[in-house]
Queue: 3 jobs
Job 1
Amino acid sequence: MLHLPLRYEDETRVTPIAAARGGTAVQIEGEVVSSEIMLRPRRQLVARIRDASGMLVARWLNFYPSQQKQLAAGRRVRLFGEVRGGFFGDEMVHPRVHAVDDGEPLPQALTPIYPTTAGLAQSALRKLVARALYAVPLDEYLPEPVLAELRLPNFADAVHTLHHPPPDVDAAALEDRAHPAWRRIKFEELLVQQLSLRRAYNARRTHRAPALPATGRLCDALLTQLPFRLTGAQARAVAAIAHDLAMPHPMQRLLQGDVGSGKTIVAALAMLQAAENGFQAVLMAPTEILAEQHWRKLGAWLEPLGVDIAWLSGSRKRRERDAELARLASGEVLLAVGTHALIEDPVLLPRLGLAIVDEQHRFGVRQRLALRDKGADGQHPHMLMMSATPIPRTLAMSYYADLDVTVLDELPPGRTPILTKLVSDGRRDQVVARVRDACLAGCQAYWVCPLIEESEALQLKTALETFETLTAALPELRIGLVHGRLKGEEKSATMAAFATGELHLLVATTVIEVGVDVPNASLMVIEHAERFGLAQLHQLRGRVGRGTADSVCILLFTQPLSENGRARLKVIYEHSDGFAIAREDLHIRGPGEFVGARQSGTPLLRYADLERDVDLLEPARTLAERLLDEAPQTAARVMERWLGGREGLLRA
């Protein structure tokens, strides 16, 4: 019933052959004058059809004996297809053919064309849909005043209109999915998504979590010794998280903020609030470089307060790792930072009260659940997800409706604007000269490459090759190399050398995408920028502009650019605001891909479009909350109609 047409064909009228124009599909009716199998230039069935206005040739390159019989001379047929000029004059290639009797009435509705798959014919789908429409009750579950206010038809009328549109329907509105019948379906789909996610949200609030009220003992001490003051946005985020942590049910909050908006200090204060109550807090990051950076930064802030932090990663020596595991298991250490190593079985966190996941979109659902399941005494820990990839408001309202969302929408003072330049690969020598001049003047630079080894398929410059080329071209500079296949110690040593200024230039893959903070680095070159996603380009660009020097990001691109590549580079060139970039990214990629990494079974919208149908989203949210409060049985019926029991996918 809800398998709705992709488009429609108009078989409610017949067009005279002489009036048929190329470029549009039409239906003609006439008598078969002749029909034969021709062997040249290749085997094909050719028929000539005549009506009162003229003659038309129809050709089939693939055909069955039954079609040959259907097209016997003297038979009356209707053909549906596109007319175009051919060797024999006007012709239709592979039209749909239907034998008719003289005077047979025309259909009274447009013919729906459904999404299908190999081996499933349109005719079979139409029969299945007709059976469903007859068998399934099309009850109206939504309040009449809401439908009237939004000018939406009732459910039964909308479904019948979409499956069997009458001939006088506004075909353009139907094709464009702007017809009231389409809007009715889209509204209910958005409503079901809101109901599902709010139910998941409410279900989580029935679980127990340790209440961690703010005592201020450690948090106030940290705020007093910081060399900077929190921005207004940071203070609001800290207050919202502190309130959630004091509750006896698990926090499920998404903290999002642009590159450099100061999420780490917010996380540090949340971890201290857990420690003030004698509970453990862990911060999990997707890469070793980022995790180690967090560990060092948190250590610098918290060690003066007498707070110890464990460090867990896959590359640590066995003896060191075992020692950290023992300290965590005994409860001696309350705070830990690490990579995926945190969720492996041997890691025991008997007093886990808070789990923070940085760059949460990089982790799958099982990984986040594994962290949650380490909660103390069968309780769920509070969860704080952080993301420097801003989520457009429409996505936050829909796909993330099961989370509380906090936005850091201010940058700390002192961040310098970054000048972005687009440079063709043909001017590479000038870019190398620019890097030399900047480094000799006392600055540091990044040179980012998309791949580690040569890929014949993509033929991209690699980090290894670029490192060798730049080392030869810039003998006066000290150059380091970092990529994902280096051992942890080598990566750490190179990053430390760059951070302390021993290296002028760091050649790297995207392992430096997030979290790397070297204030003296003010120049970045991104090789093959057209190959990167917008979020990645914005993240990489955010590695510079962290000090007082004017910062430049050079995007090196290779011609010819695809339309998509050109669109992405235009957006990153024109915008520095991560939220504006995220909106454009959503527009270019669509929500399916944008949200795909959430990996949580969130029902992707089949019919509603978050850009075009944003006016339906707010009313759907409001009605969802009302139904859950006042009419939970009605809410369950609407969801059953759409989800049919698949709602379990949302539990993560």
Job 2
Amino acid sequence: MGVLDAHFVPAVDGVAYGLLLFVVAAGLSLAFGTAGVLNLAHGTLYAVGAYTGAELSDGTWGGLALGLAVGTAGSAAAGVLLSVATAPLSRRGHLAQALLTFGLALIGGNLLIEFFGADEIPVRVPEALDASTTLLGHRYPTYRLVFVVMAVVLAGLGTWVLTRTRAGAAVRAAADDPQMLATTGIGPRAVHTGVLAAAGALAGAAGVLGAPIVGPGPGTADTVLMLSLVVVVLGGLRSLWGTLLAAVAVGEVQTLGVSLAPDWAPYLLFAAMAAVLTVRARRGAIPEPGGGPGPVRTRHRRLRLPALLPQALRAGRYPQRQTSQAQRGDAEVPRKGRGELRDQPRRARSPRSSRGGSLLAALGERATVRAAAPLVVLIAACAVVPYVLDEYSVTLAGYALALGLVAVSAGIMTGYAGLPTLGQTAPFAVGAYATALAADAGWTTGVAQLALAGAAAALFSAVTGPAVIRARGTTVLMITLAVGELTSTAIGQMKSVTGGTDGLAGFPAPVPLWGLEELADETAVYGYVLAATAVVLAAALVLLRSPAGTLLTGTRGAEARMRASGHPVARYLLLAHIGAGVLAGVGGSLMVTVQAYVSPADVGFEIAALALLAAVIGGTTSVVGAMLGAGLIVFTRDWLSGAWPGHGPLLLGVLFVVAVYVLPRGLAGVRLPFAAREEAV
């Protein structure tokens, strides 16, 4: 009985905290499950309500009511603006929405801090609620008990609205069959706007009412968003009661779990999130890209890519084999594939001719040269950096090269494998800490450090890969986010190895090769980083332009046909995941060399989002573009913000928004018309 008494108050705190998360997560679930918007700015909407409520609270009932009204209305208006902002992206998938809303979250967070300050604001509640109540022999804050009652009432009211009212029927119809809804005279666009406004209102009301529980501060939005994502994943998108149970469970882990198992509690939430998503993906609950059926398994004999990769054939990168009609079979070669073959130029479909084969080889060589030329130009431009910039700028350029490798790895996963990822900071962190620990132990040879970082990241990616490669679309984003957060949590908890939040520093500078002197200044460090980056990027480019890269591209574009022809798609994706992990691990090693320290802040969620943005800016299938995107991000965040101190997140947010709208296909997409015209010639 003594143990129960000791943990009674934390258990009730968990219920109150969980119900607060439920109100927020209900809005997030409504926006994603009904309006189809992956809103990474939802935590900022909560912060809007929390700051507004705290600012207007004066300890009276009138102040509480005014704060609730203004905070809810402000967040609802932000939801309407969010609907307008995401409308042009409705056909571009959840990745563009995630990047846009993350950018808006950075902008909103910076503006809130600018307006309300960086310190936590105290919240005053009415005197009747600012007291304690006896609950089963324990004293407990009255306000939290009242909040529990309000949240339960809100759950019941929300369920009634969605299931028993005309507005709820319209919301469900907008999610299930918008065309049918339009025939009733109700515009799906109006429902979409109303849903996002209601989701924002829920977040704002939760912020006002939850401010005495989770006070407004600089990190409030991120914390609330992450926990709400976990709740939505565990509870599902269409069940308010499922979301309620998941929210209470998360709240108990955050409060009671910390008191019962403090060493394990930080891992439980994201581990559960990753496990649930992985199980759902393995059961086939995750649709294939394009809304098609799940993976197709067949015993048919493997085809040699005669009809699967017409784009590769046009580029002359993969020779076509001739097969007879009996060898192909109607069941094995889809009609669309044969039509695509008929559309190919005659010279690309006649490898029997030596002249045609020579032409294909020549075209392949020309394509390889064209692909390598931008990389050569980029490396040459980077080589002159130490001669024209100061030491601080040279250091930033070295960091941009390291971040660029993470961006390239994210681009390979997103653009080539078709698996958008927010978790490439996990192998990045593994490589960084492996290098730091090796240097601290006396392993100072740069080549050895890079090899160790790449091997450690490859092993990590091989272990986590099976949980990633079975999922598709938004589920991949969530699984990789969970993997990244688990890795970051582990780094923060393993203080004896990683130094915890203080990080690792004070290790000796590396020696590029055996027998050489250590890197003594910024110029030498930059030269080493540039040389390593050039070698790694050249190797990546060769692999991506090889038949292996063609197979990977075919997996992304025609996965069902690849599976039907007997190709081991899962093996291709796993190898891509491991290769991308190696790139990120080498980037982590180079980052440690540039900074001479590493901490959890260097490998957190923000870095993952920046790497993905860099890949999107450059074009997810462009190696050089990803490097340029990383350079633009570092320039904006670390150099340009120096002229406007304290507004780095605002500038980054603007960059996110502009990139999503202006560069839908990235910098590489700007050259597509010219490339198409050249190919036609």
Job 3
Amino acid sequence: MPYTKSRSSMPLTTVLSLLITAGSSLLAATAAELVERQIGSSPFSGQFCDYTSFQTSIVGSRLLMFGGNLTINKGTNTKEKRELEPGFQFFSMFLNETFQATSNASTYLRREPDPAADKRIASMRDGGAFSYNGDIYFYGGEQLFNAGADDTIYKCTPTSRNIVWNSASISGNVRRTITKGASVDASTENKGFYFGGQDIIAKGADDSQADLVLNNTFLNNLVVMSFTPEGQEFTNITAPVTRARPLAQSNLLFVPAGKEGILVNLGGDDGNGGGAWEDLQVFDIGSSTWFNQKTRGNLTSGRSRNPGSGTCSVIASDGDNHFIYVYGGSNRAPGQSQLAILTIPAFQWFTITNQDYPSKVNAQCQLVGERQMLILGGRSSDGRGDCGGNSFLEILDISSLDIVSNFPDSTPFTPPPLVRTAANSSNPLDGWTDPALRGLYETQYQTYAERTRGSSKSDKAAIIGGVVGGVAGVIILGIVAVFFIMKSHRKKSARDVKEAVAEVKRSSAAQPFLGQPSPGFPSPGFTSGEYPQAYQQGYPPVGPPYKDDYIVEAPPNPAPAELPPVTPATRPTELPS
């Protein structure tokens, strides 16, 4: 049987199906490789000890952690010296996932690709992270190697597949060489703020050179970063020492009160062991003015009068009442109070002692949802030889004040019973230290977007009002013009009638009988005394009168004096019947 070459055709739908299947497999493999690269067997190269001096930022459903000091124990011997893991630390948590806060951090923590591996991005410790329009900007902090110029900062754009890094310039009287300041991301104002800290000398730009921190300096400058689609703008506001004394490692919080929001700065270290606890430092964003406000309440726990530096904090709101949760601190030992709550506007402190609260210093806190405070990293104040014994992540329910393990929780926030009495106060318990602050606080806060929309609506209303007013003016002028034209026409008609009457009188005297109608008078069908709908005013109506609330209606024109009020102008009385 001879060999016959056959040609078989494959349907187009089958080809498309195979291509789609192959593409899906390729994407799945790529995603799997990305997850494996990020997670691996563990996000750490050894036993986790502590993670401090890093920054956090939330973009979408991702919590990102940058820089800082990560210490680990790579050996099995607990006496083995811990090591500071070099390089740029970069971790993430996906907040749209359900997990439990356990000692095994690899179940929820991912290690992102290290941007410092190719020497492009400097490693940072402390500083602030600010998000805008999907980008994260880093300001201040100590660059541990490859230290850059003092007029350049870094920013990154997290995507679903990778992190895109770029640099950004700063100008004016602002420099990046500052560390250990307090930062807050005021996203509803498209602004970021960085207060206080310590000076830095930029030493160089290679791996062997790093920033030098001037530990004997304490600053009270407020750096304001304003973000727009066109770029970022930096402003340096020096605070009066009498209103905001220099501090390092304090807590800066944005309170949705006043016209454009206010900042509350608390805690920290002034170089002599003191911080802003009894007297808070308050900044009004709208007027760029600093105020002071005294607080009430006892912060003493054990032998420490206050939590000290190295605390982290979040703020929750319930109507016009705001609650600042401050956790940990360098002055708090295990068994002492790790949590303090400040109520606003009562400005009263409450301390909570709970043996289940782990001691934390230099941790980072983030409020996720309405009631879960994530306490990330930090170190224990109870010695460091055993890696601290703390978990990487602790979750505090700020309503029940319990440490919980399940994440997330969508239950609404309710103030804990401990602070509800103070929450009923509409004024500080000891009065307003600065009376002007009361008026600012009582002003209803609106976000930048709300204020912009309101201004836009006002502008549109003004434009529409002007257009409507202009159209109304044209209509009024038109009505007035029609009125005078009609008035003039009626006067002319009256003159014509007067002349016609005179002419009829003359004709009647010469000709006693009129056998046929004269031009312009009723047709032959009319007989003596029959008039179709005699007009009351002696002239035909011109339609219903126009009425406007802004126009005074003119009185009707009187009938011509030569005609009787009930006699039509088309039938003079002198004509014989």
